[in-house]
Amino acid sequence: MAIRAGRRLRARVKCAIISDRNSNVSESSSREFMPAGMDYRKVARMNRRITSWYSHNLGMEMPIVAYGHSGFPLLFFPTAAADFLEYERFHLIDAISHHINAGHVRAYSINSVNRQALLNEQAHPAYKAEMLTRYDRYITDEVLPLIRNDTGDQGARPITTGASLGAFLAANTYFKHPDLLRGTIPISGSYDVRMYFNGYHDDNVYFNNPMSYLPNLNDDYYLPILRRADAIYILTGQGRWEAPERSRDLSNVLHSKGIPHVLDVWGYDVDHDWPWWRKMLDHYCGKLFW
């Protein structure tokens, strides 16, 4: 485990997502989706493309934005009820733009179903859990094949990342599919989401809650893959609004299962907020991809 004080921190298609004509993909211009307040000229320095299609797994239109022309693929999951452009609006994409423009990283960001699932107080818990399972199928059946087509590498295994509730989605997706993904960089997350289900429990809840299924993982397929992992980085601060014990709990479970990982706990001045998430991901992009 690394303890890091924030104040000592060092500061083949041009990102075109390949359309599968069987998936009813539609494409829109970057400027049409440019968030209000963003400098188009600054974002336009990097290759940027937005595509959307109707997901039959989810029964809704699902957009994705891609940044970069080459490099290792990172798959972003938004926080809370935000959308696929959140990391651009809050300048996290700007913070890692030098990695993207140098061709070391290409980033993909998707919508979540948090509004329909975990944050939907009107829905029955069974429906919320089912939406998480359908979202998982959307990622494996639709998003990952699209990324592989876009990179020109059918064996591409992206690293997942996200902050806050996006950290849960990133970690859950990786731990369920270590054969399809290389690793995960969850930032400031919570990995036990049973509180969102008000005591309800079924298989969909269990298999979408890392703190439930990981301690019981003893199979001959997924566990050996996880024990060879080389890119699990669990990041958290200890400042305002942070809950570092949640990251420590996940780390303890991984340690008990013999799964190699890094738990990087930053300082007491490191808050649960965008300025620190930008610094964290920039630091790890430099560490992993250069």
Helix and strand arrangement:
Blueprint: E1 2-4, E2 25-28, H1 40-44, E3 48-55, E4 60-67, E5 72-77, H2 86-89, H3 92-95, H4 97-101, E6 105-110, H5 125-151, E7 159-163, H6 165-176, E8 183-187, H7 203-206, H8 210-213, H9 222-226, E9 233-236, H10 244-256, E10 262-266, H11 274-289
Parallel strand pairs: 1-10, 5-6, 5-7, 7-8, 9-10
Antiparallel strand pairs: 2-3, 3-4, 4-6
Give structural notes.
This protein has 290 residues and is α/β, with parallel strands linked by helices. The chain has one domain: Rossmann fold (3-Layer(aba) Sandwich). It contains 11 helices and 10 strands. The strands form 2 sheets. Strands 2-3-4-6-5-7-8 form a 7-stranded mixed β-sheet, sandwiched between helices. α6 links the parallel β7 (159-163) and β8. The radius of gyration is 18 Å and the shape is globular. The two termini are 22 Å apart.
CATH class: Alpha Beta
Q: Please give the radius of gyration in angstroms.
A: 18 Å
**Helix segment tally:** 11
The main pleated sheet reads as: 7 strands, mixed
How many domains in all?
1
Q: What's the CATH H-level homologous superfamily?
A: Alpha/Beta hydrolase fold, catalytic domain
CATH-scheme architecture: 3-Layer(aba) Sandwich
Q: How many beta-strand elements?
A: 10
Q: Helix proportion of residues, in percent?
A: 25-40%
Q: How far apart lie the N and C ends?
A: 22 Å
